[in-house]
Structures are given as C-alpha cells and as structure tokens.
C-alpha cells in the first residue's frame, strides 16, 4: 500500500489533510524556491512542484508526495510571507478597499510499481476585507499571526473578524484545497481507501 508524504512544514496543511481522513507522514522540503513567472497560478504550481519533486527524489518504492504553495495576488502584486512587521503592514494596506485572490498550487508525485506520474493544479479563491484602520492593522501585526502567512493574514485566525466576503474554497485560503485534492486523486485513478487506511 502506498505511503503518502506531505512535503510541507505548514501546520495548517497537516491539519487539513488530517481533517480529510488522510493518513500521511510529514517530510518538509528543503528545495530552493525558484520563480520564473509573474502569473500567480504559474508561481504556485512551480513552487508546489519544486517542493514535491525535492521530497519525491529522495524516496524509493510506492509513494505519493504532495507539495503545495500559497500566495496572495492583488493589483498585479504577488504577496508571499512578509519579511518583517513593516512588510506585513504594507501587505495588509494593499488588501484594503479591493478584493484579492488567494492561489494554492498542489503537485502530486506518484510512483506505483516503478511507474511514475505527476499532476499539478491550482485553486483560486476571492476574498474581500472590511476596511481596517491603521490602528487595527498595527494591533493585528503585533499579534504576530501574519508573520508566517501569505499576504500577512490568517482567515482562520484573528483576521476572521475582518473578512467580508469569500468566493471559492475556504480551505484553499488556509493552504490546501481539500475537496479539489480529493477529486484529483480520484481522477488519477488512485483509490481513496489507500489514502485513509495503511
Ligand atoms: C492567506 C492565508 C495563508 N495561510 C498560510 C498557508 C501557508 O502555510 C502559508 C503560505 O506559505 P507557503 O510558502 O505556501 O507554505 P509554508 O512555508 O507555510 O510551508 P511549506 O513551504 O513547508 O509547504 O500561509 C494561512 O494559514 N491562512 C491564510 O488565510
């Protein structure tokens, strides 16, 4: 039976895969992240692929490796994780008065009976914030919650009180589009039972 490896150190992705009943091991990628595109969908697919490939290349035998990456896109800017608190404030300001998009790319690397297959996809969710005052932005950044999150916020955390609208998959914003992942696993001809029972 296949081993499922999550090539991510994100605690959110670990929680979401667990929520969908998946039994897996975490093996964080150490790949250098190289971006060659300015399109957010291409960027998240490139990065998820690099993370997945790095872990997959170190495995043998039957395995499925999952790589993922999340970015926020607003007005032609791609926002990853903030470098520092000042950067977090500037990112949150960019998200005011406008809707923005959250992209998560997912790459699946499968080896079964020595045959290797790969699938990469992305999911896009639109998010609208209520206006945040300078004071609210400052207080939120001081909470440190934004520091390891793309776009400098966590929809699932303290930032929830500023979320006005969302169109698309909520779980995609948190870092893993779980229903789409399930569909892709089935489309690749894998048995979901293998993902749940080991
Ligand atoms: C927008 C948003 C992002 N995030 C998180 C999901 C991701 O963990 C993080 C984006 O960073 P990523 O670079 O996608 O992932 P990571 O560095 O956390 O983990 P790894 O590279 O090992 O896979 O932002 C939230 O938790 N909530 C949100 O609302």
What's the CATH topology name?
Maf protein
* Overall CATH architecture: Alpha-Beta Complex
Number of helices: 7
Largest sheet, described in full? 7 strands, mixed
Spell out which ligands are present.
Answer: thymidine-5'-triphosphate
Detail the poorly predicted runs: none
What would CATH call the class? Answer: Alpha Beta
General description of the model:
Keywords: Cytoplasm, Hydrolase, Nucleotide metabolism. Its cofactor is a divalent metal cation. There is one protein chain. By secondary structure, this protein is an alpha/beta fold. It has one domain: Alpha-Beta Complex (Maf protein), CATH 3.90.950.10. The protein contains 7 helices and 7 strands. Strands 1, 2, 3, 4, 5, 6 and 7 form a 7-stranded mixed beta sheet that branches. Strand 1, helix 1 and strand 2 form a beta-alpha-beta unit. Helix 3 crosses helix 4. The model has no long low-confidence stretch (mean pLDDT 96). Bound molecules: thymidine-5'-triphosphate.
What brief labels describe this structure?
alpha/beta; 198 residues; 28% strand; 7-stranded mixed beta sheet; binds thymidine-5'-triphosphate
SSE diagram, text form:
Layout: E1 3-6, H1 11-19, E2 25-26, H2 40-56, E3 63-74, E4 77-79, H3 85-94, E5 99-112, E6 115-129, H4 134-142, E7 163-167, H5 170-174, H6 178-187, H7 192-196
Parallel strand pairs: 1-2, 1-3
Antiparallel strand pairs: 3-4, 3-5, 5-6, 6-7
Helix pairs in contact: 3-4
The structure holds thymidine-5'-triphosphate.
